[in-house]
Amino acid sequence: MTGINQLSINTIRVLAADMVQAANSGHPGAPMGCAPMAHVLFTRFLTANPKNSKWLNRDRFVLSNGHGCALQYVLLHLMGYKVTMDDLKNFRQLGSKTPGHPENTHTDGIEVTTGPLGQGISNAVGMAIAERHLAATFNKPGFTVIDNTVYAIAGDGCLQEGVASEASSLAGHLQLGNLIVLYDSNGIQIDGSTKLGFTENVLERYAAYGWHTLEVADGDNDLDGLARAIEAAKAETDRPTLIKVETTIGFGAAKAGTEGVHGAPLGAESLAAVKALFDFDPAQKFSVADAVYDFYAQRAAEGARREDEWNALLAEYAQAHPELHAELVRRIEGRLPDGWEKALPRYTPADKPVATRKLSEGVLNAIAGLVPELIGGSADLTGSNLTRWKGAVDFQPEATGLGSYAGRYVRYGVREHSMAAISNGIAAYGANIPFASTFLNFISYAAGATRLSALSHLRVLYIMTHDSIGLGEDGPTHQPIETMAMLRATPNYLNFRPADGNEVSAAYLAALQHSDRPSVLSLTRQNLPQLEGS
User: Fold this and answer.
1) Rounded to an integer, what is the distance from CA 246 to the centroid of its chain?
2) 475 Cβ contact partners less than 8 Å away, ≥ 6 residues apart
3) Are 287 and 14 in contact, with CB atoms under 8 Å apart?
4) What is the DSSP pairing of strand 409-411 with strand 374-378?
5) Residue 2: its pLDDT value, please?
6) What is the predicted pLDDT for the residue at 469?
7) Which sequence positions are flagged as catalytic?
8) Which residue of 86, 156, 245, 313 lies most exposed, with the fewest beta carbons within 10 A?
9) Which residues in the chain land under pLDDT 70?
């Protein structure tokens, strides 16, 4: 490996190490090890326009092992996003655009907030669902307006997390061929070698989930092998792909290949040696050759050209399919349909007592046809949560005979945690409003993801039934005694505990109108009277 590719990869490695050294905090190992695969992905495959980071049909990139975010910040800087060299120098500093883990609300080009391991790959599954659904809804012959790919880099820690297993299992069932995950297999985690507790055959596990699996044995040097693997993954349209990439954590550093390079600065002496090894001036910090900027600018220009082509296609689409075009634009802009709220049911004290979960079902039946961006489902409790509206079509591959990608009801199975994380990905993709449902007590299973809904300012509706102790004979294992306290303590959450039908309708109104925060609707199993003045 020589020339501009070698220079670019080494620039990424050195810049990431400089950032961590300057902050005296962070994780240099993963960026240094992942630099080759990330470089190949960003310069040969990823289609995006740094001048318009919200272009709907851009490819999505998720760094699931978010502790390695110095890698992503460097790539965004080189590509021309709103991440300056000064931002790199302020890595992990209070108020900077380059926080210690990626946050979608802070940094241009960051798709989702990651850091808690396993969340990012699960978000990527949600993004792939969103793309497949929008493509099935809006694409017409001669007008492929939605066709992007979702890429993720994930590490050993991500694939050890249960939430990743849940999401990956569902992705395999759903045949999400638009999802490609590069697995950074460096054999190291904080405690030491992964041989201490993670010795399964990951590729066989993912094959059992229904994934297409590939391997690159020399992820440190084999750029052509990386490119061939990604090309093969893109050619596989009926299965998600996991590419196991063998890398050396902290490549080039004195402690490369050990836990010592995972989560601490290299140190001045080791960093100087790395720079010398890569033919950089050890006395210079935060150095980027013009040739590297120029090389990345070429890919950015290609992304801008692709967006221009898409805009031209969209203009033709408007002429051929004006109603669909208007609907797509509305959803891209995040505007709710005009007058949808008029369909919300209203009640008087003369109406009979009804359980609020049943009243919620009435709302969904009333608005599902008017708010077509609403997409979601239940964690195997549809008949209890009452979340499937009349005429709903399941989101399923057509080959299964169970539904279609144009369907809007997701069968999550008993996967509460990934249901929430996937919903975050659907929301982050845009043009969709996800909901997720289970018993209120079991939102505790999903807490790792639901708090990220709030931190990320994502509109996700959590429709939680069987509130309080009034839920029948199931007993204390199903009673959400402490749950509301946890939810109310979470910043940026809307928590609703409606007491009758009008309050259920009002809860949905507020939840849908607040585009920058998640909502929890806590609903009863027992009948409640319709209150005076509600």
Assistant:
1) 24
2) none
3) yes
4) parallel
5) 72
6) 77
7) 416
8) 86
9) 1, 471-472
